[in-house]
# Entry
Amino acid sequence: MKKFTIGAALLTMMFNGVYAQSLKSPDGKFEMNFQLKNGVPVYNLKYNGSVVVEDSKLGIRLFKDSSIKFASEIAKPEDASFDLNNGFTKTAEKRDSKNETWQPILGEKKNYINHYNELALTLNQASSDRSIIVKFRLFNDGLGFRYEFPQQKNLNYFVIREEDSEIDFPTDMKAWWIVADYDSQEYQYQTTKISEIPTQWPKAYDSNASQTLIKNAVQSPLMLKKEGKEPLYVNVGEAAVLDYPASHLEVDAQNFKFKTHLTADRQGAKAYVQTPSTTPWRTIIVSPKAEVVMDSKMMFNLNEPTKYKDTSYIKPTKYMGVWWEMIIGKSQWAYSTAENVHIDKTDFSKLTPNGKHAANNTKVKEYIDFASANGFQGLLIEGWNTGWEDWFGHSKEFVFDFITPYPDFDIKMLNEYAHSKNVDLIMHHETSGSATNYERWADKAFQLMNKYGYKSVKTGYVGDIIPRGEHHYSQWTNNHYYRIAEKANEYKIMVNSHESVRPGGESRTYPNWISAEAARGTEYDAFGGNNPDHHVILPFTRWMGGSMDYTPGIFQTKLDYYFPGDKRFVKTTLAKQLALYVTMYMPLQMAADLPENYAKHMDAFQFIKDVAADWDDTKILSAEPGEYVHTARKAKGTDNWFVGGITDENARDYTVDFSFLDKGKKYEATVYEDGKDADYEKNPQSYKIYKKTVDSKTKLPIHLVRSGGYAISLKPIK
# Structure
């Protein structure tokens, strides 16, 4: 009777569609369970037997056909019959696993380990005779899942209205978040409970050059913490965002639940799909240790290996730039006083110079001299090309041609001069959001770069996107970024994008896209300001999916140095600026300040000269989101190590444990730390430098002042 009862119960569960499929991580600590509840796909996630994600629905809403009308984001009841979120039965199940080691072209470690167990479930919707696959990969640091659409009779072309992937948490966790926006990630991070997000949301943003906010939604990667006796850290993100819009997270604050919200185009459509196709991976990284979450490479592992045949041109680069002086307002990008120019008609040599154009021959040669004397490989120059007089705010499509220099910028002479001093100039292509114009000129622009020996380009997308109605993170524009990366690869050029979509590990597939901005960088210290905790949140959020061009190294943090009475300042100590070169991964690594400011502190500048930009190993020594980060990295191809530590607005004491060093070896440590009287507001340039012999048994106590830090270079003693 007992056997019959159990068997009958199981049979009933199967017919009702609630029989669960389980998947465990390679180490057995994670368990993902999937089931169909009355035909609706549902999953949950456990860690060491405890629920991390409660039952959460999966599904895709579709338009009824591919003819989209304006304002069609307004759904009608009859449209629900076209959705792929209910009425499913499981028709197939496939399991797989992988344990591989791969080498990133540029990375935080020499080897990345990709170890997971996989479950792929084929679901059929009988009412429409359509099938989809929901694929799960469970790693030792969390879960990734996505939707796959096989080519089939009734599902060849379709338009996505919305993706409804839910992540339902059992508790009200602490969250580090920025407001959701189709066009910008350049916001101050907020720290609240999930339940408090709607209350804080209206106060969590300022204006931006392009802005389309999503009320009560936040952006990913989203960092969360379950507090208490058994803390748990959770990071929610996405990976491999290819031929698809970037997503945001709608907040159900009362139920501690998040739901995917895709970036739309002007018609309200989210993605145009032709099968076979896949969505990006949704990622949930989990650990009781913040250091493990920060160190995760799950997003990279969920991307495909590169198909590039030649990656030899992709190299880490340390550079300076004719940039900061324009950001702070000392110089200008524009050459003339004109307010209305035409790229194909205006004779710029006949215009009246404004006297503040930074990209001129004399100034650029001075920067080249300083960069060369101090071993920098590159020099970025912004404002070199015609069109800056009316580049912004006019929805102007033909805004730059990317090949014509201003009269006071001799492109041939300056490149020859730079090369004679072993410096490569770095090209700047600001598009003013006109992606169509950039694609039209890309070949000629990259040909010009090849002609003069430019090896890398900084692209920019300030302002609303053209084609008009698209957004910075919509499907079309995301595809544009990868078209540019592929085109650049044809010319052996590396790309550093600004105002573009945030990375989700795609550098594994497109390794020449070596860095991006896609967050609030150093420039905001001259705009609205960055809070002291900004630098200890970014490694847990923006940096999870790839390198950021944060542009650190500001030694003259008080802007009243240039403009008496100016209240703007960089909210760090000088020592913290040094530490950022270690705590922030940047294979394209900028020393952003003016040469004259470095010349006054050449002893501290030595660390920026010495620190590596590519790594064989990385150790997260200690970290807590929003509070502090301590990181050690081993330089690529050497036995040299570098250590950096930073704090928020609170002073802290920390003891550096050098047990990561090779046993039996002694190292010369050069320590750069906050001075005893240092303070990020009152005395930011106070620092102390000293040398010390250390080994793997050494423990070094260090004091970090408010928004302070320290940096250490370690070289083996032979």
